[in-house]
User: Which sequence fits this backbone?
């Protein structure tokens, strides 16, 4: 039990008759009690990991009555990192997700935050269309299609073609995700080593193998793996089963309760930073982190409103990949993260009055193309990565997101909003082909009225591995992005932020 010194004056007031005490409400504090100096923490990056670190730091420090100042540096002009929206036609009132698009019901941090901040969520919407909602295209034919909302016919079709593989996959996914969810709970949480907790929970049994090997090891047929599961790893991670590890392959199949925040998922992280009472500096680049001693760091940054600035902090969190930070660390941290290859994903948004052309997918002219087209590879085709790995389909996915009214210049015409994931920029020939336009002519503004392109270093190539980066690169220097080669999602980045926040505050309670 913690014993506090109480001044004689306060004890005396406690024994004064109520009427007398009421005459003087001044309580004299013990001058011998020294207020605890606040901890000063810098977080570099305002994405899921950085925002979650700040949010849980504030929560845990309040529980233990530890004064805290949090400063967040973000080199971009928005909160959310890879979770960001773009206004269709440049209209911010008509947003569409450009990066991380959905989260699912097992994503505890995001689901709880959405509820706490009273943010409206919506499920994955399907257009009311007579055609299929989903199709998986291998560059030659659709190997699977699914009607809007699913049906017993779709279920029967799956089991007729793939036997018990769909059921086995669901059971394997649930068992694997069940192990992962223990990372949120005692005695595993908080974990000081991602490598150790992954081993302790048996998750390295999945990360040690490719998705192809892991599925075969668990008795899941190759046809279902290639047609269905690989389509999911391609749309989620732009990677094929013979290269992506087994754990990430299972994460791709955990789709129950898929949802998004109305207006953009970035709002979760904006609310987290507000709840953290953090000082947030957008458009501010950290260019140097200097270690003064075991208990202090100096951060040098540039941007608005002050061109150059230095601040001193007790601890620093690097909430983004070390290799893309372009920060000069002086001295170099004791533990340097591996420089690992990241996917270079091209995201293209565009609007058109045209629907997808049946001819582009070898369909009869009177058939409708599915609203969402995922891709896999035809049997026997080489499985690489990047531009090579995309194979004969030429893209990873095409989604007809929704209709949208183009009101610019009083046009008042209804168009469709499309989103395409690809390993290379889309050229006019590709766009003309999928829209059924003449290939020998340039695509006019009449056919594609608005377009937005973005290239992301979206996630690592999830190659099999059994060890992961250190959480502490040095004394007082923390690192969140090591979890990305384990599982790369908004939720796991948030979990790493929560875990580091807890470890940090546990270190302060002495």
Assistant:
């Amino acid at each position: 039990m913690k014993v506090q010194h109480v001044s004689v004056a306060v004890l005396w007031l406690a024994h004064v008759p109520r009427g007398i005490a009421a005459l003087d409400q001044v309580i004299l504090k013990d001058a011998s009690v020294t207020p605890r100096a606040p901890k000063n923490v810098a977080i570099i990056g305002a994405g899921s990991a950085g925002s979650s670190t700040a949010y849980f730091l504030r929560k845990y420090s309040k529980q233990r009555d530890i004064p805290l100042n949090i400063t967040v540096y973000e080199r971009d002009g928005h909160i959310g990192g890879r979770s960001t929206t773009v206004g269709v036609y440049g209209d911010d009132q008509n947003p569409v997700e450009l990066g991380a698009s959905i989260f699912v019901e097992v994503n505890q941090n995001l689901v709880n935050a959405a509820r706490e901040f009273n943010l409206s969520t919506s499920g994955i919407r399907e257009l009311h269309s007579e055609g299929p909602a989903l199709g998986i295209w291998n560059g030659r034919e659709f190997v699977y299609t699914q009607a809007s909302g699913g049906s017993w016919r779709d279920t029967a079709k799956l089991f007729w073609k793939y036997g018990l593989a769909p059921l086995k996959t669901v059971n394997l996914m649930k068992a694997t995700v069940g192990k992962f969810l223990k990372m949120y709970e005692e005695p595993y949480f908080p974990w000081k080593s991602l490598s150790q907790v992954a081993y302790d929970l048996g998750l390295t049994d999945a990360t040690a193998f490719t998705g192809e090997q892991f599925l075969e090891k668990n008795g899941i047929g190759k046809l279902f793996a290639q047609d269905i599961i690989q389509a999911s790893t391609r749309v989620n991670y732009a990677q094929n089963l013979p290269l992506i590890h087994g754990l990430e392959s299972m994460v791709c199949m955990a789709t129950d309760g898929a949802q998004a925040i109305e207006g953009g998922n970035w709002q979760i992280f904006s609310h987290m930073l507000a709840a953290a009472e953090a000082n947030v500096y957008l458009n501010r680049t950290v260019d140097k982190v200097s270690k003064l001693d075991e208990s202090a760091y100096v951060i040098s940054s540039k941007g608005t409103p002050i061109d150059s600035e230095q601040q001193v902090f007790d601890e620093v969190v690097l909430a983004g990949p070390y290799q893309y930070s372009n920060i000069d660390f002086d001295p170099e941290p004791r533990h340097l993260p591996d420089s690992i290859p990241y996917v270079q994903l091209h995201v293209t948004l565009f609007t058109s009055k045209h629907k997808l052309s049946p001819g582009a997918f070898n369909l009869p002219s009177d058939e409708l193309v599915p609203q969402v087209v995922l891709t896999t590879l035809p049997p026997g085709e080489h499985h690489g990565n990047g531009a090579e790995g995309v194979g004969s389909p030429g893209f990873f996915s095409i989604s007809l997101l929704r209709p949208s009214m183009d009101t610019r210049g009083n046009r008042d015409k209804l168009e469709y909003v499309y989103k395409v994931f690809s390993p290379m920029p889309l050229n006019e020939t590709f766009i003309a082909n999928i829209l059924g336009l003449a290939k020998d002519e340039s695509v006019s503004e009449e056919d594609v009225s608005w377009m937005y392109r973005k290239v992301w270093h979206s996630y690592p190539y999830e190659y099999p591995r059994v060890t992961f980066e250190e959480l502490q690169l040095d004394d007082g220097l923390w690192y969140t992005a090591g979890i990305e080669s384990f599982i790369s999602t908004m939720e796991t980045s948030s979990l790493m932020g929560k875990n580091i926040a807890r470890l940090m505050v546990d270190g302060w309670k002495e």
